[in-house]
Design a protein that fits this description.
Layout: E1 38-40, E2 44-48, E3 57-62, E4 67-73, E5 76-81, E6 87-91, E7 95-97
Antiparallel strand pairs: 1-7, 2-3, 4-5, 5-6
Organism: Streptomyces prasinus
Keywords: Signal
Protein name: SH3 domain-containing protein
Length: about 100
């Protein structure tokens, strides 16, 4: 006959953790901390099919044109023209972004 094994009942108290402190609002970004939009630093920059000066160009962005940069490879920026939708590579020597600095 097998003997019955009696285990004592142990009561455990529920674990409680202190609530994490969560800020009531997200920190705001001051205007002087936001980067300016991308710009063309010369009269025009060629948009190319590959990140190479030997690659064929198919579009040109002129000074003041609006565009976004999606990735950077070396000194080349993958650009999307926000007006025409054209996408391609532009030289980082001619495309830049002003950086602001907060003085206070």
């Amino acid at each position: 006959m097998l003997g019955a094994l009696a285990l004592p009942l142990v009561s455990a108290t529920a674990a409680t953790a202190a609530p994490a402190s969560v800020p009531s609002t997200m920190p705001t970004v001051r205007a002087c901390e936001r980067p300016d939009p991308w710009s063309v630093g010369t009269q025009a920059v060629a948009i190319r099919s590959k990140a190479s000066a030997e690659s064929t160009w198919f579009d040109i962005l002129s000074r003041g044109h609006r565009f976004t940069v999606h990735k950077i490879s070396g000194n080349w920026h993958f650009i999307k023209d926000t007006v025409t939708g054209a996408k391609g590579w532009g030289s980082g020597s001619y495309v830049y972004r002003n950086v602001r600095m907060c003085l206070n």
